[in-house]
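Morning, I've got a small favour to ask if you have a moment. It would help a lot if you went through both lines with me. Thanks so much in advance, here it is.

***
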Amino acid sequence: MSQEAPSHRTADPLLVAGAGAAVAVTAAGGLHLAGALATPRIDPLALTVSDYVALPGGYALLAVAALALGLVGMALAAAARRAAPAARAVPVLLLGWSAALLLVGLFPTNPPGVPADLAAGVHRYAGALAFATLPIAVWLLGRALRNGALRGLAVTVGVAAGAFLVAHVPIVLAIDIAGSPRFPLLGGVERVLYALVIVLLLVTARALRRTAPDLVAVPEADPALVGRCPVGAGASGAAA
């Protein structure tokens, strides 16, 4: 009876990133479809994705999208730990991003027109943490991998995230300044930022896969089989 050497398999970061992005985009698509059919219709250029929580099933779809992207962060953290062991802060930041998304998914924001409660506060600050940590983590990873394109994309996402967070300061702090801009296109800006985040995740996963292709499968030899089956003798050994 022949035996096969076991292999230690780790998640393919590009495969996980692609699957997670597909789930998140599909969930977001369902939210936008429901928002377009709702009465009154939800304006995607004015309201953020989190505001869709008021729709039937909105909380569940938002949670699915957040948790799917959180799993992508965990896979990237594991891959980065092996591909760039010297960049110890990168896996920590990526896991922090995943934890922040977990909180975003579990604690919904307040529906439009409803005063913010504790859950909404957790949602807001966890979302801010998620937007802040991912560009930093990817920039540090790009520096460790000497990948200028990855660093440049991380800077682009970081600038967009910073602008989006600054626009939220009056909302988060419940400040109503007379004559201040209402950011009527805040929802549209957020959707552009989300698209950039998805691209950043996929490009990061691709960079990790190309840097360390053995992330997908690393064979481990069985000491009991070493020396028993010389090269070229597999067929005769199996027959025996």
Observations:
- The longest strand covers residues 7-9.
- The two ends are 8 Å apart (CA to CA).
